[in-house]
Amino acid sequence: GLGSGSGGSGLGSGSGSVASPSASSSKGSTRGSGGGVKEKSTDKYAVLQALRAEVDKAKAALDLKEVDYDATMKIKLSVAKRCFEATREHFLSSPEFDTFLTENRSWLKPYAVFCSLRDVFGTAEHWRWGALSASCATETVARLSTPGSEVYASVALHYYIQYHLHAQLSDAAAHARRKGVVLKGDLPIGVDKASVDTWMHPDLFRMNTSTGAPPDDFDPNGQNWGFPTYDWDNMAKDGYGWWRARMKHLERYFSAMRIDHVLGFFRIWELPASAKLGCLGRFRPSVPIRRHELDCRGLWFVDRLCEPHITGQLLQEFCGERAAEAAARFMEETGREHSAGSGATSVTFRFRDEFSTESGLLSSDVFRVREGSPDWLVAETFAMRKGLVALMHNVCLLRDPDDPDAFYPRIEMEKTASFQDLEEWARHALSWLYGDYFFDRQDSLWRENARRTLPALTSATGQLICGEDLGMVPACVEGVMEELGILGLRIQRMPHEGGEFGQPAGYPYATVCSPSCHDTTTTRAWYEADGGRRARYAKQVLGMTGDGRLASSFPPPAAYRKEVVGGGSGSVRPGSSGRPGGRSGSADGSASGAGGGGGGKSI
Q: Any idea which of 117-121, 304-308, 528-532 has the lowest mean pLDDT?
């Protein structure tokens, strides 16, 4: 924040302030009691005082109901840059910065050079950087991180920002430990395609793909996060060094760690680069449906199963009054006819080449509505877009781009019109293959994939590890997580066991339970949004009576468990009271004892 408290990134006197150069030295400065540096130069002091006034003004202007991220980042970076210029000589020559650079050069130099080139080129898409793209990233970093290079001033600025972020987070973590508070970090499952990681290590990523999640009750089109999937075989060559380095670095600040989308270490939902939504994906790794499996069931019409099934009747159904326009603009006739069950036939269509992918279709100018357009036009355009996307998703099988004999069932295949228009025997055959693909044949492969990847993370750290195991959870996940000592996650409003609300008393002991998470609204917002749901929750979960008092059926727990936090990150010494010894956690199933110094207990 722009505040002045301990660990803040503003101009205040607290420890870790952005205004502060790194430490006192023989170059004419003395350290204040709050961790800041008082420059002897009157001019520099005046600059910093002026910046303090600017920050106070910005704080007032940006104190809005909703965060204006662009404006906040703009003022923060502007202030940080001027702080750096006012203290640059002292900062770059300080022993504290020299130590920081030495200990972090493996990631700090590439990151600082990447940020500088991103600003020079006006884009982080490094594949557009010509001679400075990923193929020569190592040499580029070595040259441009050298003092005196053409971008060194920008590189040094990013050193400065990262140094202070490190100092502030370190101070906050130390303060938390002194107070007996455990900080839990978050390890994202993916990295952005336009990132320093993919620039420096392109061999570790499948850059022609994206990561996401299949359709569910929350999003019928699925999710496309835009991250490239991992090349696990290449990562294994050095013992998953990229992952181990991330975990060791995070251990500096956190005593517990949440692994985002831990299911991705079993299998990941992979989408082609042309996808914009999350529907037309498949799990990687996975055992595909082979062509001979289709042949032996009489499913020889592979093109019919893999291409969007579009008839005149379906065009009318999905696009309504604009069906003729949709056909004229986006389609061409296939030359084949479709025979309906009644014996009637109809013309079939396919998307024109330029609209045959989600990227091509959704970037069409047809869907760009001018500002001020009437509501009816906006509604009609949106409806046509929605209808065409549904037609594009109207397939039963997906082809493997690298293996002409491998196929994958489209998620929720049985809900498609393409499936429903098949003869009964074909529907039965495809349904069997669908169930076998998603629920039977993958178990051994996914279990072994997790067993070879997750230990690289858990063995690299002493942190207490929690895996976010939400969504479409394979049967093998629970056993592998228990085997590796990884806690699970339960969000009460996203119940695993069915029903409207989860019941924490029934959760497995080795789970972290919470009423909300980063994928949901806040607990208060959720509780206040729906009066009927609030009443059901109060009665079913909290055991409250009509007058709002706790029912007699909701007594306090019969026993308590005491957790004693020992020294060292992640270490826990269970007590003997209450529940018998076992994995770290409180009596209600929540994670409680991650170390990191300082004794403590949870009840």
A: 528-532
Contacts of 149 (CB under 8 A, 6+ apart): 143, 155
**What percent of the chain shows pLDDT beyond 90?**
65
Using alpha carbons, list the distances in angstroms from residue 223 to 135, 150, 226. 31, 41, 9
Q: Give me the amino acid identity at 568.
A: G
Q: Name the CA radius of gyration of the chain, rounded.
A: 29
DSSP 370: P
CA of residue 54 relative to chain centroid, distance: 34
Q: Are 226 and 153 in contact (CB under 8 A)?
A: no
For residue 340, what pLDDT is reported? 66
3-state secondary structure of 288: coil
Q: pLDDT, tens digit, for every residue of 341-376?
A: 556 678 899 999 999 999 999 998 888 888 888 998
Answer whether 18's CB lies under 8 Å from 79's CB: yes
In DSSP terms, 406 is beta-bridged to 290
Residue-wise burial string across 298-328, b where 16 or more C-beta atoms lie within 10 A, e elsewhere = ebeebebbbbbbbbbbbbbebbeebbeebbe
Residue 288 pLDDT exceeds 90: yes
SS3 of 497, please?
coil
List beta partners, residue 332.
350
Alpha-helix residue ranges (DSSP H) falling in 179-276: 196-200, 232-236, 241-250
Region 193-210: what's the mean pLDDT?
97
The pTM of this model reads 0.79
What integer is the mean pLDDT of 460-483? 92
In 234-268, which positions are buried (b, 16+ CB within 10 angstroms) versus exposed (e)?
ebeeeebebbbebbeebbebbbbbbbebbbbbbbb
Q: Give dist(CA 214, CA 500) in Å, integer.
A: 21
Q: Which tops the pLDDT comparison, 20 or 109? A: 109
Nearest-10 Cα torsion for 302, 303, 307, 313: -100
State the Cα–Cα distance between residues 455 and 451, nearest whole angstrom: 7
